[in-house]
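Proteins fold reproducibly. Consider a sample protein:
=====
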Amino acid sequence: MKRPGKDDIIRIMKNYYLHFDDLPRTLAAPLPLSALLSCDNALGTWDGKRGNIMEFAVRISSSDAYSVDIQDGRETRMPFPHVYLKYPGSDFHSPPFARREAFAVLYDGALCGRLEEHGILLDTVTWPLEITPEIRSLIRKIDTLCESMSVPGCIDRIDGYALCLLRELMLQHPARRTLRSSESESFYAEKIQRIASYLRAHYAEGISLDELAAEHGLSRRTFFRYWNREFPSHSPIQYLLELRMREACRLLRYEMPISEIALRLHFSDSSYFAEQFHRRFGETPSQFRRRRSGKL
């Protein structure tokens, strides 16, 4: 498979600067966005004091060899692509630069403490970045959602994907790279166990694994990678199916119609339920019921 190149990255970028402060959320988001910036031809300079905004900038490419920034008197030079943090209230200067591609998520400065509670490190102003498939996918998803912000729940999803993006950036943070493996594993193991606990409590409901992962700050790929470490014998889908199969066995002991059991456990129809049940137990739901009741 061809590795995505610069042209593939360009095609996901759109040009907008959107404010979210006044937009209502359906859920009580722990880290609501203040604004989003997306551009494939950013051009200009900044010279002055920033407002109370914490900005995480993903600088993807430029004809310049590197970016030059001066924040609170400290000059940094970093080749593209890279991450750059602009702190609330900082004195920020950027010399003239060539057109560049960039994507940024911005938060109210009052949320800096909460960001750190979620594992977002704020002590390093810039670091090199690999534009991974996860990062590219998250930017694409946010771009797409920004076209339909009037849809209920859309802003909540953007908040979730933005947090996922921050976590992907943090995985390449210099400090994260030096963490002991056991600490890193524990961080994700706890999240996976929380998701598994949710599945055990809500298996009979309609569940989107992608949305559930996003709510816990995980991209789809990261979710499945760490899930497989915690539950090597069952994928998330198989785990959910196993929970539903166990409940089906319990319900089949009663007089409830098989079609109703299938509907209650969110199977698309009775035939699919019977197929999955037979694959798991080697007999149909009807045969299981008759055997359990002694009516062979």
The radius of gyration is 24 Å. Residues 182-232 form one domain. The chain has three domains: 6-130, 182-232, 238-293.
